[in-house]
Amino acid sequence: MKFTDKTVTQSKPELPEGKTDHIFFDDLDRGFGLRVRDTGSKIWVYQYSRNNKTRRMTIGVFPTMSPSQAREQVRKLTAERRLSADPARDLAAKQIDKESFAETVAQYLAAKQPELRDRTYTEAERYLKGTASRLNSRPLALITQSEIADLLDHTATKSGDATYNRLRANLAAMFTWAMQRGEVAGVMAQRSEIEGALKEHRREYRIVAMPTPGLLISSWSPGMAVKKDARDLADALESIADAMIHDGSFAALFAKYGLTYTPPHE
């Protein structure tokens, strides 16, 4: 197959039967691939061999990058390879030397300020610039899951669960934004947080459940808290929530914002 505007569309090429993920390769330019997933996403890739090892890198997302634009990028990378360059390694080095956490936060807040309510923006600024300030000097591409976990654990211990949850939500939104810009390769967060941050672009990315070895459960149902002596209020809220589950109100609310709704286990 030669990748053109006719052979690559929202519906083509189709996945082989029984597959959820497949890479098609172009007949004209060696290593030029299109990764298609059952979510509907189509990602341009460049694959090559170096020191007897296969390397693969993402170069763009369809339809944001057209077939001709992707082909042009592949030919540039191929020319670099002929000069003994290692594009995947060079890209990783560029990401490491790119923006720090603090610089990315500043760019994220500047980009989001026009669309966020004043109170929401002020909260995001407080948590990302203040609560998460220990990450400021770290290159964004080098921040590890354990660093985020340590930060969240420290925040929960020092400031409580409410601050923990707000910090986690703001970090998820910021890292998802950075992923869309190519600054990080992926984000681990709650599905609804990632979908909410991606909005209309969510079908361009694959969102999957992460394995959680050592944990007895891998999903959590949302809950509500009331004062200990407010039993009547708790009963009333529980009745309302049950009614919203069974009459489809929760499902409609999730659908309104483009989120996946998973009913709680009975």
Content of β-strand: 5-15%
> Which H/E pattern describes the elements?
EEEEHHHHHHHHH
The total of helices stands at 9
For the record, the CATH class of the domain at 101-206 is Mainly Alpha
Mean pLDDT: 84
CATH topology of the domain at 101-206: DNA polymerase, domain 1
What spatial form do the alpha-carbon principal axes imply? globular
Radius of gyration: 22 Å
Give the class from helix and strand content and strand pairing: alpha+beta
Query: Uncertain segments of ≥5 residues (pLDDT<50)?
Result: none
Oligomer: single chain
- At CATH level 2, the architecture of the domain at 101-206 is Orthogonal Bundle
Roughly what percent helix? 40-55%
At the fourth CATH level, what is the homologous superfamily of the domain at 101-206? Tyrosine recombinase, N-terminal domain
Largest sheet: 4 strands, antiparallel
How many E-type strands? Answer: 4
Q: Strand order within the widest sheet?
A: 1-2-3-4
What is the secondary structure topology, with strand pairs?
Blueprint: E1 21-25, E2 32-37, E3 42-50, E4 53-62, H1 67-82, H2 87-96, H3 101-112, H4 118-131, H5 145-159, H6 161-180, H7 191-198, H8 231-246, H9 249-256
Helix pairs in contact: 3-4, 4-6, 5-6, 6-7
Q: Can you describe what's shown?
A:
By secondary structure, the chain is α+β, with helices and mostly antiparallel strands. The protein is built from nine helices and four strands; from the N terminus they run ββββααααααααα. The chain has a four-stranded antiparallel beta sheet, covered by helices on one side. Strand 3 and strand 4 form a beta hairpin. The model has no long low-confidence stretch (mean pLDDT 84).
